[in-house]
Structure to design on (244 residues):
Protein backbone atom coordinates (compact mmCIF):
# COMPACT_ATOMS: atom_id res chain seq x y z
CA UNK A 1 0.00 0.00 0.00
CA UNK A 2 2.71 2.45 1.04
CA UNK A 3 4.85 1.47 -1.97
CA UNK A 4 1.94 2.02 -4.39
CA UNK A 5 1.21 5.40 -2.83
CA UNK A 6 4.86 6.34 -3.10
CA UNK A 7 4.93 5.39 -6.79
CA UNK A 8 1.78 7.44 -7.46
CA UNK A 9 3.23 10.51 -5.73
CA UNK A 10 6.51 10.11 -7.61
CA UNK A 11 4.66 9.77 -10.92
CA UNK A 12 2.59 12.89 -10.23
CA UNK A 13 5.69 14.87 -9.24
CA UNK A 14 7.47 13.73 -12.38
CA UNK A 15 4.54 14.72 -14.62
CA UNK A 16 4.36 18.08 -12.88
CA UNK A 17 8.09 18.68 -13.36
CA UNK A 18 7.89 17.73 -17.04
CA UNK A 19 4.99 20.16 -17.51
CA UNK A 20 6.95 22.98 -15.84
CA UNK A 21 9.90 22.31 -18.14
CA UNK A 22 7.61 22.15 -21.22
CA UNK A 23 5.97 25.46 -20.29
CA UNK A 24 9.42 27.04 -20.48
CA UNK A 25 10.05 25.74 -23.98
CA UNK A 26 12.10 22.63 -23.21
CA UNK A 27 11.50 18.94 -23.88
CA UNK A 28 12.39 16.03 -21.61
CA UNK A 29 13.48 12.99 -23.62
CA UNK A 30 15.70 9.97 -23.39
CA UNK A 31 19.42 10.63 -23.47
CA UNK A 32 20.92 9.97 -26.96
CA UNK A 33 23.43 7.56 -25.40
CA UNK A 34 20.56 5.37 -24.17
CA UNK A 35 19.20 4.94 -27.70
CA UNK A 36 22.70 4.38 -29.03
CA UNK A 37 23.48 1.72 -26.42
CA UNK A 38 20.32 -0.17 -27.43
CA UNK A 39 21.61 -0.29 -31.01
CA UNK A 40 25.16 -1.21 -29.98
CA UNK A 41 23.84 -4.14 -27.97
CA UNK A 42 21.52 -5.30 -30.77
CA UNK A 43 24.46 -5.31 -33.23
CA UNK A 44 26.83 -6.94 -30.70
CA UNK A 45 29.41 -4.17 -31.11
CA UNK A 46 32.73 -5.26 -29.59
CA UNK A 47 34.85 -2.13 -30.14
CA UNK A 48 34.07 1.60 -30.27
CA UNK A 49 36.44 4.11 -31.91
CA UNK A 50 35.83 7.60 -30.52
CA UNK A 51 37.53 9.97 -32.98
CA UNK A 52 37.64 13.57 -31.83
CA UNK A 53 37.18 12.55 -28.21
CA UNK A 54 37.91 15.97 -26.66
CA UNK A 55 37.71 15.55 -22.87
CA UNK A 56 36.07 12.11 -22.95
CA UNK A 57 32.40 12.94 -22.48
CA UNK A 58 31.32 10.49 -25.18
CA UNK A 59 33.19 7.55 -23.67
CA UNK A 60 31.94 8.38 -20.18
CA UNK A 61 28.33 8.44 -21.42
CA UNK A 62 28.73 5.08 -23.16
CA UNK A 63 29.96 3.57 -19.91
CA UNK A 64 27.25 5.21 -17.82
CA UNK A 65 24.48 3.82 -20.00
CA UNK A 66 25.76 0.26 -20.21
CA UNK A 67 28.38 -0.29 -22.91
CA UNK A 68 31.08 -2.47 -21.34
CA UNK A 69 33.31 -3.29 -24.32
CA UNK A 70 36.61 -1.69 -25.37
CA UNK A 71 36.71 2.00 -26.28
CA UNK A 72 39.58 3.68 -28.13
CA UNK A 73 39.41 7.48 -27.77
CA UNK A 74 41.57 9.64 -30.03
CA UNK A 75 42.24 13.31 -29.26
CA UNK A 76 45.12 15.32 -30.75
CA UNK A 77 45.36 18.41 -28.51
CA UNK A 78 47.37 18.36 -25.29
CA UNK A 79 44.98 20.12 -22.90
CA UNK A 80 41.80 18.11 -23.60
CA UNK A 81 43.86 14.92 -23.94
CA UNK A 82 45.12 15.37 -20.37
CA UNK A 83 41.51 15.47 -19.13
CA UNK A 84 40.56 12.53 -21.37
CA UNK A 85 43.41 10.31 -20.20
CA UNK A 86 42.61 11.07 -16.55
CA UNK A 87 38.94 10.17 -17.12
CA UNK A 88 39.91 6.83 -18.67
CA UNK A 89 42.75 5.97 -16.29
CA UNK A 90 40.71 3.75 -13.97
CA UNK A 91 39.04 1.83 -16.81
CA UNK A 92 41.23 -0.99 -18.19
CA UNK A 93 39.07 -1.30 -21.32
CA UNK A 94 39.14 2.40 -22.21
CA UNK A 95 42.25 3.19 -24.24
CA UNK A 96 43.35 6.70 -25.21
CA UNK A 97 45.70 7.87 -27.97
CA UNK A 98 46.93 11.43 -28.45
CA UNK A 99 46.49 11.67 -32.20
CA UNK A 100 44.36 13.33 -34.84
CA UNK A 101 42.87 11.17 -37.59
CA UNK A 102 43.15 12.09 -41.24
CA UNK A 103 43.91 10.92 -44.78
CA UNK A 104 47.70 10.87 -44.38
CA UNK A 105 50.23 10.14 -41.64
CA UNK A 106 52.38 12.99 -40.37
CA UNK A 107 51.88 16.19 -38.40
CA UNK A 108 49.57 19.16 -38.88
CA UNK A 109 48.66 22.43 -37.19
CA UNK A 110 45.28 22.46 -35.51
CA UNK A 111 43.47 25.74 -34.83
CA UNK A 112 42.82 25.94 -31.08
CA UNK A 113 39.45 27.51 -30.25
CA UNK A 114 38.63 29.50 -27.14
CA UNK A 115 36.07 26.86 -26.12
CA UNK A 116 38.29 23.89 -27.16
CA UNK A 117 35.32 21.96 -28.62
CA UNK A 118 35.35 24.11 -31.79
CA UNK A 119 39.05 23.46 -32.49
CA UNK A 120 39.67 22.16 -36.02
CA UNK A 121 42.28 21.50 -38.67
CA UNK A 122 40.07 23.67 -40.92
CA UNK A 123 39.43 27.42 -40.74
CA UNK A 124 36.22 28.41 -39.00
CA UNK A 125 33.56 29.59 -41.46
CA UNK A 126 31.53 32.80 -41.41
CA UNK A 127 28.33 30.97 -40.42
CA UNK A 128 30.04 29.47 -37.37
CA UNK A 129 31.38 32.89 -36.38
CA UNK A 130 27.94 34.46 -36.78
CA UNK A 131 26.24 31.72 -34.74
CA UNK A 132 28.85 31.78 -31.96
CA UNK A 133 30.56 35.20 -31.98
CA UNK A 134 32.05 34.53 -28.54
CA UNK A 135 34.11 31.64 -29.96
CA UNK A 136 37.32 32.24 -31.87
CA UNK A 137 40.73 30.78 -32.51
CA UNK A 138 43.33 31.64 -29.89
CA UNK A 139 46.36 29.83 -31.32
CA UNK A 140 47.63 26.71 -33.05
CA UNK A 141 49.15 23.44 -31.89
CA UNK A 142 51.22 21.05 -33.99
CA UNK A 143 49.87 17.54 -33.49
CA UNK A 144 50.40 14.01 -34.74
CA UNK A 145 48.04 12.82 -37.47
CA UNK A 146 47.47 9.18 -38.45
CA UNK A 147 45.29 7.23 -40.83
CA UNK A 148 42.87 5.10 -38.82
CA UNK A 149 43.72 2.09 -41.01
CA UNK A 150 47.35 2.40 -39.87
CA UNK A 151 46.59 3.26 -36.25
CA UNK A 152 44.51 0.11 -35.80
CA UNK A 153 47.63 -2.06 -36.09
CA UNK A 154 49.30 -0.19 -33.22
CA UNK A 155 46.50 -0.75 -30.72
CA UNK A 156 46.32 -3.42 -27.99
CA UNK A 157 42.67 -4.23 -28.78
CA UNK A 158 40.90 -5.80 -31.75
CA UNK A 159 37.28 -5.87 -32.80
CA UNK A 160 35.21 -7.67 -35.40
CA UNK A 161 32.04 -5.61 -35.00
CA UNK A 162 33.26 -2.02 -34.79
CA UNK A 163 31.35 1.19 -34.19
CA UNK A 164 33.11 4.34 -35.41
CA UNK A 165 32.20 7.79 -34.04
CA UNK A 166 33.68 10.80 -35.86
CA UNK A 167 33.26 14.32 -34.47
CA UNK A 168 36.11 16.35 -35.95
CA UNK A 169 34.68 19.78 -36.75
CA UNK A 170 34.52 19.60 -40.54
CA UNK A 171 37.39 17.11 -40.96
CA UNK A 172 35.15 14.06 -41.31
CA UNK A 173 35.92 13.53 -45.01
CA UNK A 174 39.65 13.21 -44.32
CA UNK A 175 39.06 10.81 -41.43
CA UNK A 176 36.96 8.54 -43.64
CA UNK A 177 39.53 8.77 -46.47
CA UNK A 178 42.10 7.26 -44.09
CA UNK A 179 39.75 4.58 -42.76
CA UNK A 180 38.59 2.62 -45.82
CA UNK A 181 39.65 -0.81 -44.53
CA UNK A 182 38.38 -0.12 -41.03
CA UNK A 183 35.03 1.07 -42.38
CA UNK A 184 34.57 -2.32 -44.06
CA UNK A 185 34.66 -3.88 -40.57
CA UNK A 186 32.25 -1.36 -39.05
CA UNK A 187 28.65 -2.29 -38.32
CA UNK A 188 27.84 1.32 -37.45
CA UNK A 189 29.08 4.90 -37.72
CA UNK A 190 28.19 8.11 -35.90
CA UNK A 191 29.08 11.13 -38.00
CA UNK A 192 28.76 14.86 -37.43
CA UNK A 193 26.60 16.25 -40.23
CA UNK A 194 26.88 19.89 -41.30
CA UNK A 195 23.86 21.49 -42.97
CA UNK A 196 25.84 24.60 -43.90
CA UNK A 197 29.52 25.56 -44.10
CA UNK A 198 30.65 25.93 -40.50
CA UNK A 199 34.29 25.07 -41.38
CA UNK A 200 35.85 26.02 -44.70
CA UNK A 201 36.18 22.96 -46.93
CA UNK A 202 34.24 20.72 -44.59
CA UNK A 203 31.98 17.93 -45.83
CA UNK A 204 28.29 18.86 -45.99
CA UNK A 205 25.35 16.65 -45.12
CA UNK A 206 24.47 15.56 -48.67
CA UNK A 207 27.99 14.27 -49.36
CA UNK A 208 28.18 12.59 -45.95
CA UNK A 209 24.88 10.72 -46.23
CA UNK A 210 25.60 9.67 -49.83
CA UNK A 211 28.98 8.37 -48.76
CA UNK A 212 27.50 6.34 -45.92
CA UNK A 213 24.73 4.85 -48.07
CA UNK A 214 27.22 3.98 -50.82
CA UNK A 215 29.22 2.12 -48.16
CA UNK A 216 26.17 0.06 -47.17
CA UNK A 217 24.86 2.01 -44.16
CA UNK A 218 21.44 3.52 -43.50
CA UNK A 219 20.55 6.42 -41.23
CA UNK A 220 18.91 5.14 -38.03
CA UNK A 221 19.12 8.19 -35.78
CA UNK A 222 19.57 11.95 -35.87
CA UNK A 223 20.47 14.10 -32.86
CA UNK A 224 20.40 17.94 -33.11
CA UNK A 225 23.71 19.63 -32.38
CA UNK A 226 25.13 23.11 -32.94
CA UNK A 227 22.37 25.71 -33.44
CA UNK A 228 22.35 29.44 -34.11
CA UNK A 229 20.59 31.96 -31.89
CA UNK A 230 17.93 32.19 -34.63
CA UNK A 231 16.96 28.60 -33.85
CA UNK A 232 18.43 27.17 -37.08
CA UNK A 233 20.23 23.87 -36.51
CA UNK A 234 23.63 24.01 -38.24
CA UNK A 235 24.91 20.57 -37.33
CA UNK A 236 23.56 17.26 -36.08
CA UNK A 237 24.94 13.81 -35.30
CA UNK A 238 23.80 11.10 -37.69
CA UNK A 239 23.87 7.46 -36.56
CA UNK A 240 24.21 4.88 -39.34
CA UNK A 241 24.08 1.09 -39.22
CA UNK A 242 24.38 -1.57 -41.89
CA UNK A 243 20.99 -2.80 -43.07
CA UNK A 244 21.74 -6.37 -42.06
Amino acid sequence: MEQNLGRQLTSRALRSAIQVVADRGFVVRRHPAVRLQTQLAAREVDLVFDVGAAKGTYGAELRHFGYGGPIVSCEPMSAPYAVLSAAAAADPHWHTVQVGLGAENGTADIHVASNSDSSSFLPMGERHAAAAPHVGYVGTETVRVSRLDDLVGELPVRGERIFLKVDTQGFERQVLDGAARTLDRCVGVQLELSFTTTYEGGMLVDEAITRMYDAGFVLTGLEPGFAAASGAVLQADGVFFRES
